[in-house]
Amino acid sequence: MGLLDSLRAILGSRAETDASRDADPEDLFGMSTAYITMGAELGWESTGDAALCFADVDSTDFSDTVDEVKAILDAGGEETGTTADFHEDSHGYNWVVLHDDTDPEDLVTSVHFAADTLVERDYGSRLLAALFAFENVDETDGSYPQYTYWVYSFRRGAYYPFVPAGTSERDSGVEFKLESALTGELDVESEKEYWYPYWPERDGRHPWE
Asked: Are 159 and 151 in contact (CB under 8 A)?
């Protein structure tokens, strides 16, 4: 286990210990209006990507639950055009990766369906985070990071901004600006020690890639 793996393990354990309330997928719908604010007022447009991160359980029932999530998303995707991919990253976390170029609202709905199914099947404690990806459309000189994310922590029941500047540093200045702009519209985590990073493995890529 490398340094990053150890850090994630520590953060995951601490998040479980410090969980403020049970996971509530209904909180995800706050992102529906946040998308509008991010684009119209702040110049950050949806990339068309969102993802749900959760920890695995070695059981047949859990595997059946994940299969149920896949079936729900596949059925919904036939109507909305939202695609869903499932994979495990190099740190052992599972991701449901969703893509929809036309309607961010469909991303929110799809993430909610996936999370709500896990909660209904008593696996809410395995939910870690939902990530919604944005890119800046006003800055073209490279002065802004390529991507920024609003992260919903199921363990804390709150959102926080995450702006990676490479694979091991973050742009706190942009994060604080986003926090200020969206506080009141989203339930933003006030204790910044819980703004856990989800580092991409390569610069310019998403954390789940």
From this structure: yes
